[in-house]
Write a structure and sequence with these properties.
With 526 residues, this protein is α/β, with parallel strands linked by helices. It has 2 domains: 8-203 and 329-438, Alkaline Phosphatase, subunit A, CATH 3.40.720.10; 445-513, Arylsulfatase, C-terminal domain (2-Layer Sandwich). Helix content is 30%, strand content 13%. It contains 14 helices and 15 strands. The strands form 4 sheets. A 7-stranded mixed beta sheet has the order 2-10-9-1-8-4-5, with helices on both faces. A 4-stranded antiparallel beta sheet has the order 12-13-14-15, covered by helices on one side. Strand 14 and strand 15 (474-479) form a beta hairpin. Helix 6 (169-183) runs parallel beside helix 10 (308-343). The protein is globular, with a radius of gyration of 23 Å. The N and C termini lie far apart (71 Å). The structure holds 2-deoxy-6-O-sulfo-2-(sulfoamino)-alpha-D-glucopyranose and calcium ion. Calcium ion binds next to loops.
Length: 526
């Protein structure tokens, strides 16, 4: 049909609005591959100096065959809350799961899993869950209790009973995911959430990967020895420094008996939970790997050969080698899942996402952990492959957030997005990587206690960030173009007066749009 040029776009837009993206017969399968605390800097395809040593060929494959998002963020940088944002499409204050220590996700509210299940999807969640209440909207589930364990983990069964499995958690989670795919109702499209514990603390690798980074010098971030100047008074008070807060036993793998009588600086709690769970054969390999290295380190330490900076550098290397080795198991899992799709002829009609519940500090600012609205913890990896819909090798710049996942998957499945959802479908960006769905993001962190990061609330645009810490009444503002590592708070700088005004207005506008509660409502009790 030949149309005069001015009518054609209008007609196409009209058709796009009335023709649903997917009909019942061709709803795509959805494979949601998820991990815990996997920073962008530990995925090779993201390309930073550290990322380049990350062992992620299979995750990278998703970037080659689909899209990788550089500007993907969470709404609240902590585990349970991020997962709740994903399932509900709403900010924490609306879905009610504001901190890990809450009473659990209220699943009487709208959730993605319940909706996909009702619309004819075969649904399952396997692995880390961390929302306390039993999964709903899943035909099958088998989840780790709480944080879960790396070795010989328990899984909660659908009858509520815990059952222990021998082996390494990432492998077992993958085996269970593949077994479910094999026995699923094949007359239906599927929605599978395969959610790993790794690379979460205690960063314990699979035995076969203990030596994966032996002899590899991991590049240090420029801010490893950050002095915290010019920024919030909270920074030096946070309890997540590689220097002062790593636990010698379970973070750094120096067993109690090895360091008997040796007083090491930094948090020195006893007990090595993963080692305690291992059987004799597993322990033997563990000790054969770490034992000699620990002895060499302790010898240098006792001889007074190590300065404080040397100690931080040693801890950083040990941390990163173990962290990246756990990533290797996650990447292998992604490889197994993608191979399954290939072998079963499912790849073409399956939308695959790889993401993680938040980012993580890998030595930036001298830290591990997350929680802050600083880039490393605020960002979530997001890679998506959807054959025929996404141009392979896309690198969209759009600002996206975890509250967008649910509306995106609904649109992909040809379903309407309920009014109450606060996220936006990013399907337009998937189809055209130059598009965007918003100009700014809202962030809120409500946790109390662990690691001593204060509640804070903020806005991020493409180029700048502003956040507020009510407990100390401090504003933090960063120019992300000139200062991507966020080392200088420019809040009071006269040359940023106009930007400050604009960001403050945008922050207030977002708080109003999302109907955010007052700071007092969720403040820590005195
Ligand atoms: C555990 C970890 C913390 C971590 C939280 C939250 N401590 O409590 O370091 O910040 O989980 O992580 S540990 O000593 O038990 O390892 S989250 O990803 O679940 O939010
Ligand atoms: Ca997490």
């Amino acid at each position: 049909m030949r149309l005069i040029p001015s009518i054609r776009p209008a007609l196409l837009a009209f058709l796009a609005a009335i023709v649903p993206l997917a009909t019942a017969a061709d709803k795509p399968n959805i494979l949601f591959l998820f991990s815990d605390d996997h920073a962008l800097n530990a995925i090779s395809a993201y390309g930073s100096a550290l990322a380049k040593v990350a062992p992620t060929p299979h995750i990278d494959r998703l970037a080659d065959e689909g899209a990788i998002f550089e500007n993907s963020f969470c709404a609240n940088s902590i585990c349970g809350p991020s997962r709740a944002c994903i399932l509900t499409g709403k900010h924490s204050h609306k879905n009610g799961f504001m901190r890990n220590t809450g009473k659990g996700l209220d699943q009487s509210q709208w959730t993605l899993s319940k909706t996909l299940q009702k619309s004819g999807y075969a649904t399952a969640v396997i692995g880390k869950w961390h929302l306390h209440t039993k999964p709903r909207g899943f035909d099958y589930w088998e989840v780790l209790p709480g944080q879960g364990k790396y070795y010989n983990p328990d899984f909660i069964q659908m009858d509520g009973e815990k059952k222990q499995f021998t082996g390494y958690v990432t492998d077992i989670t993958t085996d269970k995911a593949i077994a479910w795919l094999d026995r699923r109702d094949k007359t239906k499209p599927f929605f599978l959430m395969c959610q790993h514990k790794a690379p979460h603390r205690t960063f314990s690798p699979a035995l076969r990967h203990l030596k994966a980074f032996e002899g590899v010098e991991i590049p240090e971030p420029a801010s490893l020895f950050d002095d915290y100047a010019s920024r919030s008074q909270w920074l030096p008070k946070n309890e997540m420094e590689i220097d002062r807060h790593f636990n010698w036993a379970y973070d750094l793998k120096l067993r109690e008996d090895e360091r008997a009588g040796i007083k090491l600086p930094g948090l020195d709690l006893y007990g090595a939970p993963e080692y305690d769970r291992m059987n004799a054969a597993q322990r033997k390999q563990w000790v054969a790997h770490f034992g000699p290295k620990n002895q060499a380190f302790l010898k240098d330490f006792k001889a007074g050969k190590l300065s404080n900076k040397d100690m931080v550098r040693w801890k950083f290397q040990r941390y990163m080698r173990n962290y990246l080795a756990t990533v290797k198991s996650v990447d292998e899992s992604v490889g197994r899942m993608l191979k399954y799709l290939d072998d079963q002829g499912l790849a073409e009609n399956t939308l695959v996402i790889y993401s993680s519940d938040q980012g993580f500090f890998l030595g930036e600012h001298g830290w591990y952990d997350k929680r802050w609205m600083f880039e490393e913890s605020f960002k979530m990896p997001f890679l998506i492959r959807w054959p025929g819909q996404i141009k392979p090798g896309s690198r969209p710049e759009a600002l996206i957030q975890n509250i967008d996942y649910a509306p995106t998957l609904l649109e992909a499945a040809g379903m309407p997005v309920p009014e109450e959802i606060q996220g936006k479908s990013i399907v337009p960006v998937l189809k055209d990587s130059t598009r965007s769905v918003r100009d700014s993001l809202y962030y809120a962190y409500y946790e109390l206690g662990e690691h001593n990061v204060p509640q804070h609330y903020g806005v991020r645009t493409r180029t700048h960030k502003l956040f507020y810490i009510p407990s100390t009444q401090e504003w933090q503002m960063f120019d992300l173009v000139k200062d991507p590592s966020e080392m200088v708070n420019v809040y009071g700088h006269p040359e940023y007066a106009l930007m400050k005004k604009e960001l403050t207005a945008e922050y207030k506008r977002l708080r109003k749009e999302f109907d955010a509660p007052s700071y007092e409502e969720h403040a820590p009790k005195q």
